Hints:
It contains 13 helices and eight strands. It is an alpha/beta fold. It folds into two domains: 6-202, Spore Coat Polysaccharide Biosynthesis Protein SpsA, Chain A, CATH 3.90.550.10; 238-377, no CATH class. Mean pLDDT is 88; it is low at 337-342.
Amino acid sequence: MTSPSVSVIVPAYNAVNTIGACVASLHEQNFDRLYEIIVVDDGSTDGTADAARTAGATVLSIPNNRPAAARNAGIRAARGDIICCTDADCVPHSDWLQAITAPFAAPDVVACKGIYSTRQRQLVARFVQLEYEDKYDLMRSEERIDFIDTYSAAYRRDVLLANNGFDERFDYLEDQELSFRLAARGYRMVFQGTAVVDHLHSATLRSYLRKKATIGYWKAQVVRRFPSRAVRDSHTPQVMKVQMLLSFAILGALLAGVASLPFLSPDRQISRVVAFVPAMLFGLTFIATTIPFLLKAWPKDRMVAVISPMLLFGRAVALMTGYIQGNLFPLHDANNESRNGSLKYIIKRVMDILGAIVGLIFTLLLWPLIALMIKLDSKGPVL
């Protein structure tokens, strides 16, 4: 019997409502090579395995242990030389397999990344799609990337096995960790913007912010292992990091303004206004950072463009909250891989210096305003 040259792996947990459409779309691919579809049931309790089997997939069942373990089980069972990955809530387009495997014609390409699309009409879901498209625009011009998400991805199986696959200590962002690990070892990965899967994005503000906070937490774990990725990766807009800092600067300045009110004379209203000037300045700066996204979104979806500054602020706060939590309460067992100590020290020292610079800038902006408030409120010298 001829072995398939490509294996598609779909981890699934309690996905009975979506796995059938996912597997059906995989069976309908316009693809001229033999391939297999493996659904790894990650301890589901809702009939996911039966639904996948009925749809025509080969099903592996494992105890619930998160997507990294499910994908690794699928990789071990796969017979194809190329491993393609998507998720149970995705519906690949009919040319997805053809597009996602095409880059492997180049012998030095070991992995590639595709993209999301969506048919949802909820406002938050439409914003999420434009958010992804903003990130895809960054990657289109890159000859090699360091960031692959497994909702639309492909890898050489031998490279995955040689590099121990996905790290099962990561409950989330295990695909980012693998990407950064492969990039650090010199492997070439590429972006494939024609490999499209439809996805069900977060459709409510609550679910969106919760997901961003979770991403922030696990991003902190990934960055602790790969500190240089805090500075840059091929997927994350640099302005997003600025927005994260500004969001907390706004909240901090607002709290400082409120805390100062009891100490200000009620007869001097101008001093009460000045108390909130730092928050207003940080807020205006934040709004300025959202203008490029707004302008890009406007021709595509004007309603999303109008509300984007508010959603971007929520995103920044959620990511920063999760990131801080991830640094305050790290998972030590997920970050015990050996590293170059001197390089880690240099990068950490650079980050310390950058943090100090940001603090100095904040102080230089704040203290003149504090001095002005004191002068307006009280007679005599400021100090």
